[in-house]
Amino acid sequence: MEHVTFFVDPAWQRQGLQHIPLLYTMWGNPLTASVPFWRELFERRCFDTKYYSVTTEAAKADMVLMPYSHNVALAQWPELLDACAQASKQLSKPLFIDGLGDIEHPVKIPNTVVLRYGGYRFMPEKNAIHIPPYADDLLELYSKGELAVRNKGPRPLIGFVGWASLPFGQKLRTIVKELPPRLKALGDDRYAAVRKGVFFRAAATAVLKKSPRVATNFILRSTFSANLATMSGKPEDLRREFVENLLSSDYGLCVRGDANASVRLFETLALGRIPVIVDTECILPFADEVDYRQFSLIVDFRDMARLPDLVADFHNSLTNEQFMNMQRKARAAYVNYFRVDALMPHILKELDKILH
Fold first, then answer.
1. Can you give the residue range of the structural domain that contains 110?
2. Do 149 and 160 contact (CB within 8 A), yes or no?
């Protein structure tokens, strides 16, 4: 599949609701400054319309497109779900839904394809296409797109800037909320992956800091820094600190967030650094096309206690040339597969597998 045409009923457009990024080039960018840098991300780059178009004439379309995300529709306009489902059924065309979010609710509409970035390998969702969380081209913003490749040192230097702790009360409430999967994990350890990302971040940073085999470059924050309501500091300063930390490190520690995905993974790739991915049964985008082991180290979350040794052994196994090439491959993977303007051809390949 080289191109897809989506049908959107003009009656489905509603003022005041934030439409999905696939429609930004047609309906405009609705993002505000409440989430720092996101508006600018989509002003610089957006989905490539060479690979898709939107029509109001149903006969010309391949699929029906819901113009607002699943989470927005559930919360603010549930009737839209019924309208789109009815149109899909009447036209005998599949329905395409943006189901992205830190909380991704099940979609129960038949003949539907859903965009996701979370989920778990051991609980696969039928007809889901996994894409990366939207990550800006930080190398372009801070270094004019010029990758400064690092030489291999005697010890791996691992960078991390971010939220890695909870106050006692919030920690206790979160554990209580997570009791169902935690109890299931007693019989099936895969369910131990179904925990808030901050717990994995705390465990990973603690075990790495204790090891003499690795060097750490950590700035551990007690608040979430990607939203104005929770960040402690100026957004520009926090972001620059994040970028400078990664650029001065060999590896970037990449651990899930509230969703089982990591925007940090793709920011690390954008900066040409080698990700250390703590794999919490996550579904990596376009994994049939992309060999992540060419440019990253993937460590199962159940091997957390061995994380420093696994990183050190991996680092020691590389020649300087291999180490430098992994950085270049990391940057190339971001540009060719994971940057917003690169996503659509790979989405179409996934879509073709589902529809045919």
1. 4-135+341-355
2. no
CA distance 349 to 179: 38
Please name the amino acid found at residue 308. P
Among left, alpha and beta (phi > 0; psi -120 to 50; other), residue 281 is: left
Total domains present in the chain: 2
pLDDT (tens digit per residue) in 161-180: 998 988 889 999 999 999 99
What distance in Å separates the CA atoms of residue 339 and residue 22, rounded to the nearest whole number? 14
pLDDT in tens, 310-321: 999 999 999 999
Helices (H), the chain: 24-27, 38-44, 70-76, 78-91, 138-143, 168-177, 179-184, 197-210, 235-247, 263-270, 307-317, 320-333, 343-355
CB burial readout 319-329, b (16+ within 10 A) else e? eeeebeebbeb
68 and 144 belong to one structural domain: no
